[in-house]
Structures are given as structure tokens and as C-alpha cells.
Amino acid sequence: MSEHYTETEVLKTVHDLGREVVLRALGISALSHARDATPASPAALELFRNHCGEGPGIFDTQLDISGETLTQMEKSTWNQTLVLKLARHAEDLVQHCREPEKYGHPVYVIEWDLVIRAKINSALKVISKGRNLDLPAASLLVKRLQAVRAWKAKRRLSIAASEQQTCRKTGDAEGDSSWGFVVFLVDVLRQEGMSDEEDGEEDGEAVRVVLDVDYRRHELRTLFELVDTVQGNNAKGQGGRKFKKRIRISKESKQLPAEGVPRVLLSPAFRSNTPWTSNEHKLEAQLQRYNSLLALDVY
What we know:
By secondary structure, the chain is mostly helical. The chain has helices at residues 7-26, 42-49, 70-74, 77-95, 112-170, 173-189, 218-229, 278-293, and strands at residues 197-202, 205-213, 246-253. It has a three-stranded mixed β-sheet, with no helix packed on it.
């Protein structure tokens, strides 16, 4: 115990100073606002790793948040260096203050490294927790898009298979072949090849805004729109809800083609320039024939 301050008072002032040193260094008003702090840039981190940069300072500094986990961020050499620099800075402040005894000097030996590290780690925990809070929303969006695509693929496959079966029963060979081709298209494009949708409104009515799939040949969109008009027993929307009106816009959904999609079905920008194989020529002929039968626009 010092002459004027109890151990409890010393511990409080030590931790208060440690917090203040970290807050000033990061330029934030509270550790709970750590996500507002400017992160160290990749360039600064690379220079530091190559011993070409000064690394973190004690004022207007940044944290290395490039690690994927909290442990990786805590063990970052940049952040560990910051801890040591701020600890030395805190020691200097105590030595030059008017009442060093309120920080336990010279009775107590304060391990400022541990004090500052605890504050820095608290800031990193806030950042890590913030990332985890963001994940559910991002994951929910991804799952929602995947669910929409899966529903479209399943619905279109069901419609095409049902229509093909009807054509077979009635002896319609042309219809059997055409709907069989739709079954093939949905099967080969899979759910990844279906378009994304967003909520929208038109004339006060809730609608679904259909985005274009940038890597698909544009006439496939028209083809699938025609398939979607054959509702029959499939008139319900996703999850059995009322089927909302779909409107078409030119906005593209940035997707990548699933592995194994024939390049005949890709837009020119996504095709290689090598000559087509005989099978690819046959597939192109089938697509053109189907478009012709249904009076679709082709390019």
C-alpha cells in the first residue's frame, strides 16, 4: 500500500490509465467502439513484416485485424509490438506525472505490458464479436438466394417433366423432345444456373425483381420465363405462398457458372475461343431448334 492510496485505488487508476492510453492511440472514445478504429493497411503490415516500416505508433495508430480469428489477431506481431510500445509509454507517463504514487510507484511494480495487452485484447474481442454478429445476416442472405435458386430449379424441372409425360401420353413426339430438352437444361445448369431475385414494388404491388444471370446465354432467360408461365398445379410460390408477379430488369446477378456447364449455354464473354466439338454443335442445334419451335428471339 502506498502512503496515500489503497491497493484498490491503485489498481483502478492503473487500469484507467491503461484504457486511456489505448483509446488515445486508437482514436476512439471507448473500447466498445473498437470497430470504428482505422485498421492497419495491408501495405503497412507488409512493410513492417519486411522490416521496412516503423510499425504501430503510440498516437493515431491502428490495429492489425487481418487475422481470421481472435487468437490470430491477438498473436499478431504488429499488435504485440503495439502493446509493448504503449506499455513503455504508460510507464513514462507515470514517471513524469505529479503523483506517481497513485499508480503504485514506487511501492508496486506494475506490469504495464499485461495491463495494455488486456485493453488491446478487449478491443480485438469487440472487433471479432462484430464480425460474428455480421455473419448471420450475410449467411441468411446467401441461404435465401440459394433457396430461391433451388426452388426455381425444382419447380422448372417438375413442370418440364410433367409436360413431357403429358406429351408422351398423347403421342406428341415433338413436345416430348422439346420438354425433354428443358429437363436437360435445368439438370445441367443446376440450381446455380437459376437467376437471383430481389423484393420490389410496382404500382403499389409487391413484386419479385428478377436479375439476369450474366454468364448465361440471354435467350435462356426467355425460355425459362415461358416455362414459368406453364403453372398447372405449380401455381404456388416458394414455400406454398402466393405466387408474386415477376418483373424483368437489366441488372445482372454476379454469379459464376457451375462446373461442367456446356460452354454452348454460356454468354460469349464466358466462352473460350477454341473450336466447338461435334457434341457442342449438336447442342447448339438443339437450342436453336427449341427456340424456333417456341418462336423465341435468338442471336
